[in-house]
Amino acid sequence: MQKRRLPGRRPLLLTVGAGATVAALAVGMTSAFAATVFTDDFNDGNTSGWSKSGGTWTVDGSGVLNQSNAGSSLARQFAGQTSWTNYSVQARVRPVSFGSSSSLVGLAARSSSSTKMYRLALLGSGRAELQAVNGSSITSIGSASLGIGTGSWYTLRIETSGSTIRGFVNGAQIAAGSNSLVGAGRIGLVTAYASGSFDDVAVDSAGGGTPTTPPPTTPGPTNPPPAGWPTPTGSQKVDATIPVSGTLDGGLKRYYGIGDGGQSESQDPMFELAAGATLRNVIIGAPAGDGVHCEGNCTLINVWWEDVGEDAATFRGGTTYTVDGGGARSASDKVFQHNGSGTVYIKNFRVENAGKLYRACGNCSTSYQRHVVIDNVIVRDTDAIAGINTNWGDTARFSRITIVDDPDRDTSICVKYRGVPKGSEPVEIGEGADGVNCLYAPSDITYQ
After folding, report:
1. What is d(CA 369, CA 363) in angstroms, rounded to the nearest whole number?
2. Cα–Cα distance between 252 and 306 in angstroms, integer?
3. In contact, 355 and 334? CB cutoff 8 Å
4. 202-244 residue pLDDT tens
5. pLDDT at 309 (0 to 100)
6. How far apart are CA 393 and CA 316, in angstroms?
């Protein structure tokens, strides 16, 4: 899986290891703009840029970091800078074994020492708990009973902004509160009398400020919202679905020829991505069939749909899906269809002439709780940006949304539905920000 970078204003990169990257923000960056300052997916097979304290840590052949010593009282891996203050850290975490109900596998933020930090812990009791940890003194900021079990992946996120600390599991906030134990510190991956796996770690400044990083050495590429559709470098007719495992880089070649260009749900996809696959630098022309199918966690980087047929992409079997860059147009229904569980991240994207940018399935055979995070997106001539099912606990978060050529403000930001069993049709029940399911403020939406 490729490293993921959120947009900054002329970001600069400092490599601290083959797998971990820290990005320093240029002068003039404000907290209104989120920027990734660290990522690691461990696909390089090592933990360069991390420091270990306790436990037995190895990176396996699939690019996952594992802590296998379930007898370790406290095993930790730390990365980042002790001077980082307001930021968000996210990682995929999988408990493998719990020794007791108080055993834990989790994620840490603002680790000022090896025993002082904020920690989002998945507990052997089945609960998730956001904690302020000071040695053996542990204060619960909040918790939720989620039926946490071994063998399943969970996306954990901690957001820190001043004394406000928030914890999220699979995109849903499970705890928030005010605590002043630690004002700055590194990120961490932790276990206690448990074994677990970790992947796809990312830190950004969306928590309300910019982490302090060492001086940059090498300029990196900018990543603004795309200004327009790219010119293909060539064309390739596709007669059968292209399977993708690992990474397929199309070099901005146009792929076309699957399906009939209509809305029939029986069409084959142009690309079928295996779990963990990345599709990048691809232009999908017409006809495009059912676009892209992600059978597990996937990443789409700089992928463009010139004329969406049935759907641009369908997220099916994973828990974390990322769309970074690119755009889609001419979708009579929706662009992205979310059938599986977990969270879809859509960033640095543009959509034109569409029904919806995102839709959480409202009548699939399994009624998952689904989440979407949409950031830095340009919207034109589109009925709605997201549709979610509030009765199943879906959430949609929006930031830096620019809506173009909509003087009457007809574009719906977040449409709410009542999800129904397969075979029935979901019912629209409202729209707009509510602080629970549809999460945005007026400052998150700009009209041009």
Report:
1. 12
2. 12
3. yes
4. 888 644 333 433 333 333 333 455 567 899 999 999 999 999 9
5. 76
6. 18
**219 near 10, Cβ under 8 Å?**
yes
Whose CA is closest to 44, among 23, 17, 24, 80?
A: 17
CB 174 within 8 A of CB 128: yes
* Partner residues linked to 166 by β-bridges: 159, 176
Q: Which pLDDT score is estimated for 50?
A: 95
What is the β-pairing status of strands 137-145 and 127-134? antiparallel
Residues 299 and 4: beta-carbon distance below 8 Å: yes
**What pLDDT was estimated at residue 395?**
94
- The C-alpha atoms of residue 75 and residue 330 are separated, in whole angstroms, by 50
Higher pLDDT, 366 or 34: 366
Q: What is the pLDDT of residue 71?
A: 95
Spatial distance between the Cα atoms of 354 and 144, rounded to a whole number of angstroms: 37
* CA–CA separation, 46 and 62 (whole Å): 12
Question: Residue 77 is which amino acid?
Answer: Q
Q: Predicted confidence band at 265 (pLDDT cuts at 50, 70, 90)?
A: low
The structural domains of the chain, ordered by start, are 12-219 (2.60.120.560), 235-447 (2.160.20.10)
State the pLDDT at residue 227.
60
Predicted confidence at residue 62, as pLDDT, reads 86
* pLDDT tops 50 at residue 12: no
Q: How far is residue 149 from each of residues 119, 122, 188, 242, measured CA to CA in Å?
A: 18, 9, 21, 35
3-state secondary structure of 67: strand
Which pLDDT tens digit goes with each residue over 346-402? Answer: 999 999 999 999 999 999 999 899 999 999 999 999 999 999 999 999 999 999 999
**Own/partner long-range contacts of 301-305 (Cβ < 8 Å, ≥24 apart):** 301/2, 301/4, 301/325, 301/326, 302/252, 302/326, 303/279, 304/229, 304/230, 304/328, 305/329, 305/331, 305/335
Task: With beta carbons less than 8 A apart as the criterion, state whether 431 and 398 touch.
Answer: no
Percent residues over pLDDT 70 in the chain:
85
Average predicted confidence (pLDDT) for the chain: 86
CA 183/CA 165 separation, integer angstroms:
11
**β-bridge pairing 235-237 and 20-24:** unpaired
A 10 A CB-CB count for 443 gives 9
